[in-house]
Write a structure and sequence with these properties.
It contains 13 helices and two strands; from the N terminus they run ααααααααβαααααβ. By secondary structure, the protein is mostly helical.
C-alpha cells in the first residue's frame, strides 16, 4: 500500500518546483531553491500522512515540520536581498544561453526529484501500522540530535558573519572547531534518524535515503563544492583545513593562541 502512495508525492513537489521556478524566472535569481529544499520534504510528508496515516504519522510530521520550517526560514533570511549565490552563477554560466528556461529542470526539477527519492523513509514511517519499537526511539533521538547540531551550527555561523570584525576570518570555535561543516553533519544525522524510523516501520530499504543524502552533502552540493576554491579566496582557510575534521566532529589537531584564525 505504502509504495503505491510514493508517486503521488510528485504532484505537490512538481507544483512547488514550478511556482518557485516562475518566481526565479521573474527575478533572474534561483536562490529561492535553497529555501524550498526542506519544504519539499514537508510537502511529501503531508501527502503521505494525508493519504494513509499510520501509527507514527503524528510524531513524524512534527519532526519533519520542525526541521523543514526552521531551515527554510533560516535560508530565506540569509538570502533575502542578496545576489545569486556563486554556485548558481557558475551553473548559469555553464548553461547559457537560455538558463532561465533550463533551470526549470536543471535546478528546480532536479531538487524536487531528489527530495522525492530521499523522502522514502518518510513514506514508510508515516503510513506503516507496525507497532512502535526500540528502533523508533533511536531514530527519534538521532533526528533531534541532528536538528540541534544543525540549528546551533547555523546560529553560530550567522552570529559570526554579522560581526564586521570577522570579515575575512575563519569561524573556528564552537561546533566549527570540531567540524568544518557541522551543519551538514547535523543534517546527515537527522536523515539517518528518519531512516531508522523507516526501518522500525518495516523497511530496511529506507536506509538508501540517508545514504543518498550523506553522499550529496559530502560529494555533490556540500563539502566538496564549498571547499573547491575556498582556500584560494581565503588563504587562512588552508590552516583550518589542516587542523579541523571535514565532516564528523573531532577534536582539532592544533589551535593558535587565540583559538581563532582568519578567513
Amino acid at each position: 500500500m505504502a509504495w503505491m502512495l510514493w508517486p503521488q508525492a510528485l504532484i505537490p513537489l512538481g507544483l512547488m518546483a514550478l511556482m518557485a521556478w516562475f518566481y526565479s524566472f521573474m527575478h533572474r535569481n534561483v536562490n529561492v531553491v535553497d529555501s524550498l529544499w526542506s519544504l519539499f520534504f514537508l510537502a511529501a510528508a503531508l501527502t503521505y500522512v494525508g493519504l494513509s496515516p499510520g501509527t507514527r504519522a503524528g510524531v513524524l510530521l512534527i519532526l519533519v515540520a520542525l526541521w523543514a520550517l526552521r531551515l527554510a526560514i533560516h535560508l530565506a533570511r540569509r538570502n533575502h536581498g542578496k545576489s545569486e549565490d556563486r554556485r548558481y552563477q557558475a551553473i548559469r554560466r555553464n548553461n547559457s544561453p537560455g538558463f532561465e528556461w533550463k533551470s526549470l529542470y536543471i535546478v528546480f526539477g532536479l531538487q524536487a526529484v531528489l527530495a522525492w527519492l530521499i523522502s522514502l523513509p518518510l513514506l514508510v514511517a508515516a503510513t506503516s501500522s507496525a507497532p512502535w519499537n526500540a528502533m523508533d526511539g533511536v531514530g527519534i533521538a538521532l533526528v533531534l540530535a541532528g536538528f540541534a547540531i544543525e540549528a546551533v551550527a547555523d546560529w553560530q555561523l550567522t552570529r559570526f558573519r554579522t560581526s564586521p570584525e570577522n570579515r575575512n576570518r575563519v569561524l573556528d570555535y564552537g561546533l566549527w572547531a570540531w567540524s568544518r561543516h557541522p551543519n551538514y553533519f547535523g543534517e546527515a544525522c537527522l536523515w539517518w534518524g528518519f531512516g531508522l524510523m523507516g526501518v522500525a516501520a518495516g523497511s530496511a530499504w529506507c536506509l538508501v535515503a540517508p545514504m543518498l543524502m550523506t553522499g550529496l552533502l559530502l560529494k555533490v552540493s556540500g563539502v566538496n563544492l564549498l571547499e573547491k576554491d575556498i582556500a584560494e579566496r581565503r588563504p587562512a582557510y588552508r590552516e583550518y583545513l589542516l587542523n579541523t575534521s571535514a565532516f564528523i566532529p573531532w577534536p582539532p589537531r592544533q589551535r593558535n593562541a587565540s583559538g581563532r584564525g582568519g578567513q
